[in-house]
Specification:
5 helices; mainly alpha
């Protein structure tokens, strides 16, 4: 019975640890997601949003919106040149050449938006992992409580 009681305590401790780590994961995921939205607001990233949304002051604030904007910029960039090699045509990058400069700026913005897609995806995974840890922690605490109760009974 003593072994079962110690096992119950261990399971409860593991459940509490799971709860705490889950809460930390959710808090960190939400903080980073809010930081990304604030960065988009600071830079006023609205490319690809409808006129009515821009009039309301909305900015890109989700992975889906960032993906759509990044894809649109990629399409426009490929109208300048299909690839970077095609743009240079065997030469070197010339910042005085408007085509080169526009291509580089489009590539930079496209990468910014695709990093936002990645960032929003990672924060979603972190938040979901935290929620799973909390559920697991609750289940472990409940299991430990049942084991503790069972260990107190006489055989």
């Amino acid at each position: 019975m003593r072994l079962m009681r110690n096992l119950a305590k261990l399971v409860i401790i593991l459940g509490i640890v799971g709860l705490v780590i889950g809460i930390v994961f959710i808090a960190q995921g939400m903080l980073k997601e809010n930081w990304m939205v604030e960065a988009m607001q600071l830079e006023k990233v609205t490319f690809g949003l409808e006129e009515s949304a821009m009039a309301r002051g909305e900015v890109i604030n989700s992975a889906g919106e960032a993906q759509l904007a990044g894809d649109l910029i990629r399409e426009h960039r490929r109208n300048i040149a299909p690839t970077y090699q095609d743009l240079l045509a065997g030469g070197r990058f010339d910042p005085a050449n408007l085509s080169h400069l526009n291509y580089a700026q489009a590539l930079n913005m496209e990468n910014y938006l695709y990093l936002a897609v990645l960032g929003f995806g990672v924060t979603t995974m972190v938040i979901a992992s935290g929620a799973f840890m909390i559920i697991t922690g609750i289940a472990l605490c409940a299991t430990g409580a049942v084991l503790h109760r069972l260990s107190g009974r006489e055989p």
